[in-house]
What does this fold into?
Amino acid sequence: MTTLTTARDTASSAVAAALAGALTLAVLVQVALHTTRGQDWDQSAMTTVVGGRDTQLTVLSVLGYVSIGAIVIVVAGCGVVAFLRGRAHLALAAVAVIGGANITTQLLKHSLLERPDLGLGLGTLNSLPSGHTTVVASSVGAALLVAPRVTRPILAAAGGFATTLTGASTVVAGWHRPSDVVAALAVSLVWTAVVALFIHGPGQSVAGTFAGAVVGCAGALAFLVAVGVRPVLGWDGFLQAGLVLGGVTAATALFVLACSAVSPAE
It folds into this structure.
């Protein structure tokens, strides 16, 4: 009875996570794309942080590692781990999460979503959700589904670091607005949670996962500051820049924790 109850609780967590991701995406689409205030704030938020030449080169170097090749490596790694654990279905789950999330992002960005001209002179090219962030976030979600639970705190830290660094770097580079990054997290969360509904058994919390996610995400933020990312207005823009980078960091930490919460307990 206890096992059945725990399994139902875990399934409920997966449903809740999927709904939270879908709702977040819907709100972002409505506000960031279809309201004047949303477009204006989002654009302003993207330009609130800056880096010098060396900083930009470092940021672009980080983003250069996010590629099709990186996806292949992650999928292969997940497959190896799944087969070593004798759970081939987890390899299929990893492919579903990564493939589903990235295809969804590309369809949303290039075919389904539009960025209307609301008279702000910001252009109509839609960049929501962020493709780079989706690649990394979906890989983290897939890895958490496949890996043994004892490794989850380490994965939470590494995944939090990689996802925060990628998402924030796209903002610093001027490639994406903050809403694009959070939308990518939402898409990846929906796919991770939905796939988890079909593969997980009874859930169990893993000590250290929360701390790992927070340390990893905060570490990425510290790294960006260390390489020279600064408020574009200096100390006058410290609060705004802090809210932007802090918001991306917090959203990533919540994403990692949600993916961990719906991952298998065994």
